[in-house]
Amino acid sequence: MTTARWQDTVIAESDDTVVVEGNHYFPADSVRGEYLRPSDTITVCGWKGTAAYYTLHVDGQTNPDAAWYYADPKPEAAHVRGRVAFWRGVEVTD
To answer: Which end of the chain is more exposed for a tag (fewer CB within 10 A), N or C?
Structure first.
């Protein structure tokens, strides 16, 4: 089971992650949505497409843009559609 944790709180858990460029992409339904807030941030990856972000909110603390996803990835990255990845201090362990 792969787990994403921030501030000692489990944000996501799944035995069905996809690893791309060293990042675990969790199925969206394995992510605890109560900790996510939409962000206005977007970035563009040349081969994956446009990424949108979430800010984490846990116990009154925020971690801006700590999660991202590709709502409409390019065909080469179709395997990350419907999945969420983490960074910025979020600990991901197997």
So the answer is: C
